[in-house]
User: Fold this.
Amino acid sequence: MILRSLLFVPGDSERKLAKSESSCADALVLDLEDAVAADRTEVARTMVLEYLRAHRDRSSSQLWVRINPLSTPKATLDLAAIVAGAPDGILLPKVTSADDVVTLDHFLSALEAREGVAQGSIAIIPVATETPAAMFALGSFAGCSPRLSGMTWGAEDLAAAVGATTNRDASGNLEFTYQLARSLCLLAAVAAEVQPIDTVSVNFKDAAALKQESEIARRAGFTGKIAIHPDQVDVINDAFTPSPEDVAYANRVIEAFASGAGTVALDGKMLDMPHLKQARRTLTLAASLRSR
Ligand code: COA
Ligand code: MG
Assistant:
């Protein structure tokens, strides 16, 4: 299932967990990592497990958990605590390569067996650009695990790891290094045949900027985006849902190819196979969103 919006919810916040119950996010990502203070980790694990148990069968959102990085001793403790709640998936931060996904896959298989959770049911989305080493391993994800269902990227932790004081240039645009992270994540996800998911917009009060960023991401090929505030969810869902105009145009493209020709003209423009492929993709996505 395509996740258009994934809303981060700090795992130790009673108010935010309560608020997330009314969210229309396609997925909630209950956070055990950076949104939780170090001395609150254990409380957060307990709260996240309780939330999963209480909402698993009645939440309209998928329920995901961001655990701590596998390079820290917290990661296995996070997993041991929360797999019993049968989350839909794990968001894995600060990976260094696909090997981390394979390791997590093995941990999940063992814990699913222990907890009586269906084998292979917990999916994985890595945050694939948060370490410099990961940037050189983005080609390693294809086929690494059947659990891999998407890939996303981040510019903040990468900048911190690089030692950059900012990841923006003077006009506020991402520096080349972080644009590269975005592009490579997109290509890596498509090459691995999983969903490319755009990173957060931290400026959560600026709905117009979010709309614009989401539309740019969708045109680039991303099929979803991460949210950090409930107000961002509708904007993101909207941007990643084909509009009636998109669907009408896709239908016209498909009609134009009905004769079986390989190249056709529509509205004074040449269309060939890539356009037909894109039109089919739009209709498939629109139909799958309608049937939810
Ligand atoms: N999930 C669920 N509910 C949230 C939320 C979130 N991510 N962010 C805010 N809310 C709730 C607030 O609790 C508040 O509801 P309440 O009045 O019932 O308590 C309501 O939405 C409005 O929140 P607002 O006052 O506008 O924001 P804030 O100042 O409380 O919080 C942030 C701002 C950025 C701290 C908060 O949005 C947040 O914690 N986001 C997630 C951060 C995160 O997980 N980061 C890690 C990934 S980068
Ligand atoms: Mg982070």
